[in-house]
Amino acid sequence: xxxxxxxxxxxxxxxxxxxxxxxxxxxxxxxxxxxxxxxxxxxxxxxxxxxxxxxxxxxxxxxxxxxxxxxxxxxxxxxxxxxxxxxxxxxxxxxxxxxxxxxxxxxxxxxxxxxxxxxxxxxxxxxxxxxxxxxxxxxxxxxxxxxxxxxxxxxxxxxxxxxxxxxxxxxxxxxxxxxxxxxxxxxxxx
Length: 190
What we know:
By secondary structure, this protein is mostly helical. It has helices at residues 2-20, 30-37, 41-50, 62-111, 118-148, 153-167, 169-176, 178-186, and strands spanning 27-29, 59-61.
């Protein structure tokens, strides 16, 4: 049993000695660090000005440099993601602001009676087409009695033209002043 304790204590000592021993620092040139990080020597010198560890002019501890560079990239990524989030937030704010401005313009147009609904326009146009068609279809019945007695072709033609103009009057009125129809549609309680 004593022998087993000695073996286990030796194993613990060996494990402790493995954990305690740290690798000796390796010092390399700026050019070697640049190759290792896939950067230029000039960029390495710029990073030294930003805090990249070095032990002397043109000499660097590889492990310290790698640790510092990883932390540097993490900080930079965090800053970029914050900037990206700010840009996205600003983009959403601008889109929201534009939508609110559009809604205010629509409300103002409704108050000024400059805005009509599509359904109202469709209803009014349908009424206009149907009533005009009905007026045109009644022209032969209205005019035929007057034309029976008419001797002159010119007079008969004038009577037919007059009857058609009367039937088409709503369309002529609309063509000459479409704003009148829009104002009629926009008026509440029409």
